[in-house]
Amino acid sequence: MMIATIVFLVLLLSVITLGVMIYNRLVTFRNRVRNGFAQIDVQLQRRYDLIPNLVDTAKKYMQHERETLTRVIEARNQAKSAEEAAAQQPENAGRMRDLAQAEGGLAQALGRLFALSENYPDLKADGTMRDLMEELSSTENKVAFARQHFNDAVMHYNTYREQFPNILVAGPTGFQPAEQLQLEEPEAARQPVRVSFE
Questions:
Q1: pLDDT tens-place values along the chain, 198 residues long
Q2: Which one of 1, 56, 104, 167 has the fewest CB atoms closer than 10 angstroms to its CB?
Q3: pTM higher than 0.70, yes or no?
Q4: b/e map of 61-100 (b: 16 or more CB within 10 Å)?
Q5: Measured between alpha carbons, how far is 165 from 59 in angstroms, rounded to an integer?
Q6: Nearest alpha carbon to residue 29 among 188, 155, 184, 164
Q7: From residue 127, how far is each of 63, 75, 115, 130 by CA, in Å?
Q8: Whose CA is closest to 98, among 115, 111, 80?
Q9: CB atoms within 10 A of CB 111
Q10: Please, are residues 155 and 8 in contact by the beta-carbon 8 Å criterion?
Q11: Euclidean distance between CA atoms 38 and 89, whole angstroms
Q12: How far apart are CA 185 and CA 163, in angstroms?
């Protein structure tokens, strides 16, 4: 009887220890996801700060393109709101999908602005505009790199979370699957913007 009790206690202690180890590892992976999003957050904030300056510079030359400029600012504001919501809970799949959709809209609005700017030689020659576009391009590269890092962290977190016996700990302790940050419609966003002056 005594041996059975000792074996039971050792098994119980082993299961509890395993559960604690799994829980702590889940916390580590979740924090990596949050840190990965924090890196995206820094670059997105930088981009959101550049866009109003870009639009203000373009306004001087693109008097007839007010609608395009307004759309860029509106898309920027929507993306910034979605980003702020996602920053609160980067592992929340719904918020990440909202951010991806808003970022896709911003990319399309910026693409249209850049396409239209080609028709304004004075704007293309403006040093401030060139500097802002170069800075924005550099920031886009940094966003892409940070997004790749974030998506890798999400993949590791989700993989670990879904493995057995980890899923037995993850579900009851509130570790939900995380969502990767990808453009809502990647094929549409990669297509060139068509501009017609008919």
A1: 899 999 999 999 999 999 999 999 999 999 999 999 999 999 999 999 999 988 888 887 777 778 888 899 999 999 999 999 999 988 888 999 999 999 999 999 988 888 888 888 877 777 888 888 888 889 989 999 999 999 999 999 999 999 999 999 999 999 999 999 886 554 444 454 444 433
A2: 1
A3: yes
A4: bbeebeebbebbeebbebbbebbebbbeebbbeebbbbbb
A5: 59
A6: 155
A7: 19, 25, 18, 5
A8: 80
A9: 17
A10: no
A11: 11
A12: 30
Three-state secondary structure of the chain = CHHHHHHHHHHHHHHHHHHHHHHHHHHHHHHHHHHHHHHHHHHHHHHHHHHHHHHHHHHCCCHHHHHHHHHHHHHHHHHHHHHHHHHHCCCCHHHHHHHHHHHHHHHHHHHHHHHHHCCCHHHHHCHHHHHHHHHHHHHHHHHHHHHHHHHHHHHHHHHHHHCCCHHHHHCCCCCCCCCCCCCCCHHHHHCCCCCCCC
Residue length of the chain: 198
Place of tokens 């005594």: 2
**Quick one: tokens of 194?**
């068509």
Residue type, 93: A
User: Could you tell me if 96 and 130 are in contact, meaning their C-beta atoms sit under 8 angstroms apart?
Assistant: no
Which domains can be identified in the chain, with CATH numbers?
25-190 (1.20.1440.20)
